[in-house]
Amino acid sequence: MSPALFAAEAAVACLLFSAAVWASLTRDPMFWYQDFPPAVRERLKALPEYAGRIPELRRTAARKVSVALALTALLAAVALASGARDFAGALGWCFALWSVVNLWDALVLDTLWFCWGRGVRIPGTEDLEDAYLDVRPHWLGFLAGEAIGLAVSAASAAAVAALSL
């Protein structure tokens, strides 16, 4: 479990995550509807061109649970491949990797690209610049992501510990 290996895994994870976010935003920005600022979500609900395209909250929640389960398995596999053999080692590795990607998401993707870089502006909401520039929801999301990451990492570490018996 070397620092160089961790740095390489973190870099690959950030690049893969960025590619997935970019591809989904390019394909259909409504995929990220729940992550848009409240004023933008309200405007989208009122615009007729988005009628029927706004995802239901329960579908979004189900998707996030499915992703969390998949990430639990992926993080366990990465931790095992990286040399983790006990709960504490796997927990540290998994949570550190999760935290790097979560920080990348909040700082680079959300703050620098989405908010300040104007990387995403949904047609019909361009005048809501103040809402798009507000970074607070993204950093609150970062904190929530850390809590979720701790739970996912603990589940991954438990899997590593069980598989290493």
TrEMBL record:
The organism's place on the tree of life at top rank: Bacteria
Record-annotated membrane-spanning stretches: 65-83, 95-119, 139-163
Keywords for the protein's UniProt record, in alphabetical order: Membrane, Transmembrane, Transmembrane helix
Identification of the protein by name: DUF1772 domain-containing protein
Source organism of this protein record: Enorma phocaeensis
Taxonomic placement: Bacteria, Bacillati, Actinomycetota, Coriobacteriia, Coriobacteriales
